[in-house]
């Protein structure tokens, strides 16, 4: 089931979407728990982004919009073209996008410019899909999480988010229930979800 | 809850005739995996993730026509079909029993269109449990997902008929009118009289309708180990309660929430005194009680039989 076990197997739209969704659903329901994505898309032109691409192919289609944050780096433009061609999603600016793809840690202002939904329709808040360094070897912030989906509290080393990013995230989620939901994916296919309800305290 | 003879514990399972599949799913050779097309599944999956991220909030989605009537679980069914896949084991409960016609229909549709998904009556074996009126008696685990089919998802409908207004009330967490309504209920009836679909507060933010489950089951949503997903087909809403989330029934300090009282009663089949009981009118007008959760009851009966045989 590991993302690296079969790197050349093409993404299968029906079976891999279902399997990927289930892992994302479980991760979203249990914020901060590290899960391993079951599929990759070897066609993805973004270095280290094959597992992230599996999540994109699972969720994006012609009914939604996406944005690419320039800091995604080498392969970013190809990745945008690939996502548009493969999913039918429409490329828009960060402030309009349902799904925002970026590399962590984020540049100042990215989180603040994302859609947060309205009080009446908070589900229109954006989802940030963040490609981060390897969860096991990357630099991170020791964090303690509380909120729905977390029994008592959960501790982990959060890779891909700076202390400033955490402060910006807090500000973006301050007007409950408006906010942004984060998926952190590393090159090996490990993933952590941080929905807007998760309170993060640096330890 | 008064049940007809169909639930008489003397009638064996084989008495329930399955419906014709052709009435359900059209030509068996032409179907999508798990019936729904991929565009529909993606939309439901996106809605589910937002629902989990905003506990108790009703996410709008474009409900599809299903081979079962709306109001009979089409919302829950769409959630189930967008969620399950090879390796899953599905249990479907209708009124507490797996043998109800609606449960049989849903299970058949899945068996026919979703290869690799097993079906079961056993709560312990299930990875996904779809239900409307009941939670299973036994506590669910972290690796299980509960799907509730909801006929009336809007808990504020009792005080406000207009969708645009209820949405605004939720937006502002303005629940004053609900509290006034409940207060008036207490004045009139001596307690909050709502028998099923008892309104609950989720994560301290949204008032939510938990589907027509009895009060008995409300506590199963609170700080549960498992994820609960709710779908309403007619009103096109998806919502969720993540595990380890506060779900508190609305009540007053001096009129606290109470579950159904079965003291002095027991199941006529398995003898249980700690389960939710259905009242059964038997021939001649007498009354019996039996576990509403028939799978749990069956397991108790066969466990007892094994013990007896072993002696
Ligand atoms: Zn019983």
From TrEMBL, chain B:
One Pfam annotation, family name? PhnJ
A GO BP term here is: organic phosphonate catabolic process
Q: Which InterPro entries match?
A: PhnJ
Tell me which EC number(s) this protein carries.
4.7.1.1
Annotated GO molecular function terms are:
4 iron, 4 sulfur cluster binding; alpha-D-ribose 1-methylphosphonate 5-phosphate C-P-lyase activity
Coiled-coil spans in chain: none
Keywords on record: Lyase
- State the source organism's domain of life: Bacteria
Name of protein: Alpha-D-ribose 1-methylphosphonate 5-phosphate C-P lyase PhnJ
Say which species the protein is native to: uncultured Thermomicrobiales bacterium
């Amino acid at each position: 089931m590991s993302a690296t076990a079969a790197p050349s197997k093409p993404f299968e739209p029906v079976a891999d979407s279902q399997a990927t969704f289930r892992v994302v659903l479980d991760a979203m329901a249990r914020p901060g728990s590290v899960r391993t994505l079951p599929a990759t898309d070897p066609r993805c032109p973004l270095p280290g982004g094959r597992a992230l691409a599996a999540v994109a192919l699972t969720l994006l289609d012609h009914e939604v919009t996406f944005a690419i944050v320039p800091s995604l780096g080498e392969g970013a433009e190809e990745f945008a073209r690939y996502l548009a061609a493969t999913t039918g999603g429409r490329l828009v600016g960060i402030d309009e996008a349902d799904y925002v793809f970026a590399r962590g840690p984020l540049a100042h202002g990215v989180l603040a410019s994302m859609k947060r939904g309205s009080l009446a329709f908070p589900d229109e808040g954006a989802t940030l899909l963040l490609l981060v360094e390897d969860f096991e070897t990357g630099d991170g912030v020791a964090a303690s999480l509380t909120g729905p989906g977390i029994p008592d509290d959960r501790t982990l080393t959060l890779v891909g988010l700076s202390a400033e990013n955490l402060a910006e995230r807090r500000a973006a989620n301050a007007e409950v229930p408006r906010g942004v939901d984060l998926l952190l994916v590393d090159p090996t296919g490990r993933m952590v979800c941080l929905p807007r309800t998760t309170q993060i305290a640096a330890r | 809850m008064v049940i007809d003879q169909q639930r008489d514990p003397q009638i064996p399972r084989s008495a329930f005739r399955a419906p014709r599949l052709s009435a359900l799913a059209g030509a068996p050779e032409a179907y999508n995996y798990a019936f729904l097309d991929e565009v529909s599944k993606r939309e439901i999956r996106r809605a589910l993730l937002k629902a989990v991220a905003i506990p108790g909030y009703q996410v709008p989605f474009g409900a599809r026509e299903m081979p079962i009537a709306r109001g009979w679980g089409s919302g829950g069914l769409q959630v189930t079909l967008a969620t399950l896949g090879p390796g899953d084991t599905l249990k479907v409960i209708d009124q507490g029993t797996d043998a109800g016609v609606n449960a049989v229909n849903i299970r058949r549709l899945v068996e026919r269109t979703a290869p690799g998904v097993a079906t079961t009556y056993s709560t312990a074996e299930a990875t996904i449990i779809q239900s409307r009126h009941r939670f299973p008696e036994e506590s669910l685990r972290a690796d299980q997902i509960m799907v509730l089919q909801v006929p009336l998802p809007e808990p504020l409908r009792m005080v406000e008929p207009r969708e645009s207004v209820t949405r605004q009330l939720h937006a502002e967490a303005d629940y004053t009118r609900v509290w006034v309504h409940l207060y008036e209920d207490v004045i009139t009836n001596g307690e909050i009289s709502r028998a099923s679909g008892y309104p609950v507060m989720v994560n301290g933010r949204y008032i939510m309708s938990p589907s027509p489950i009895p009060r008995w089951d409300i506590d199963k949503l609170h700080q549960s180990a498992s994820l609960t997903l709710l779908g309403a087909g007619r009103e096109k809403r998806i919502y969720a309660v993540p595990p380890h989330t506060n779900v508190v029934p609305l009540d007053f300090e001096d009129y606290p929430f109470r579950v159904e009282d079965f003291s002095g009663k027991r199941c006529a089949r398995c003898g249980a005194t700690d389960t939710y009981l259905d009242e059964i009118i038997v021939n001649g007008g007498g009354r019996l009680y039996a576990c509403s959760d028939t799978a749990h009851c069956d397991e108790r009966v066969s466990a007892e039989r094994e013990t007896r045989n072993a002696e």
